[in-house]
Automatic annotation (TrEMBL):
InterPro entries: DUF4126. Residues 7-177 form the DUF4126 domain. It comes from Acinetobacter gandensis. The keyword Transmembrane helix applies. The keyword Membrane applies. This is DUF4126 domain-containing protein. Keywords: Membrane, Transmembrane, Transmembrane helix. The chain crosses the membrane at residues 12-33, 45-68, 102-127, 147-176. It comes from the Bacteria.
Length: 191
């Protein structure tokens, strides 16, 4: 049961990494500093105040950069592999000690990295559609939704991990349907 709980928390955190790379890591760091979360062996660095401060600065810079026109699209190029790595690390940091090291890393890469990549690719597509259809005017609305989504998912991952898994699946399905609908409305839109 502990393994399933850890994977559910990991799915929520990795999905949040798909929205914003640093927000879930900052939430994990704050939670570990407050004593609400104990990272797995090898991830104790999350509980260091200096790491928490660094993640806070990185989070503010990342959120602010997504409000700069055209920089948001350029950041998606860097954020996609970064989200996969962050999702993998977040899942590994909450994984259960019941699994072998190999199984833990395999699950973290597949579940965490895969979830973060799927969510990140959905946001890249949504931003691309927004840029083409509105000239980027609606991109700040998308950016706001992404960082709020990352924060809410990160916190809920610790409070309601099973609910978050269902929520993540629903969000991904909704995003895919929304993107397909927009693409069908404007068939010349490149994705």
């Amino acid at each position: 049961m502990e393994t399933i709980l850890g994977l559910c928390i990991g799915v929520g955190l990795s999905a949040a990494c798909g929205f914003r790379v640093f927000v879930p890591l900052l939430v994990m760091s704050v939670a570990s500093l407050m004593g609400w979360f104990e990272p797995m062996k090898g991830f104790e660095w999350l509980a260091m105040p200096a790491v928490c401060m660094g993640l806070a600065v990185a989070t503010v810079c990342e959120i602010a950069a997504y409000y700069i026109p055209w920089v948001d699209n350029a950041l998606d190029t860097v954020s996609t592999p970064a989200a996969m790595i962050a999702g993998t690390l977040a899942t590994m940091a909450v994984s259960s000690g019941e699994m072998s090291q190999f199984a833990s890393w395999a699950a973290a890469i597949i579940v965490g990295g895969g979830t973060a990549t799927a969510v990140q690719m959905s946001t890249v597509a949504a931003r691309g559609v927004s840029t083409v259809t509105t000239g980027g005017i609606a991109n700040p609305v998308i950016s706001t939704g992404e960082w709020i989504g990352a924060l809410v998912l990160s916190v809920l991952s610790f409070l309601l991990p099973f609910f978050v898994v269902v929520l993540v699946v629903c969000i991904v399905i909704w995003l895919v349907r929304r993107i397909r609908m927009k693409r069908n409305e404007n068939p010349a839109t490149p994705l």
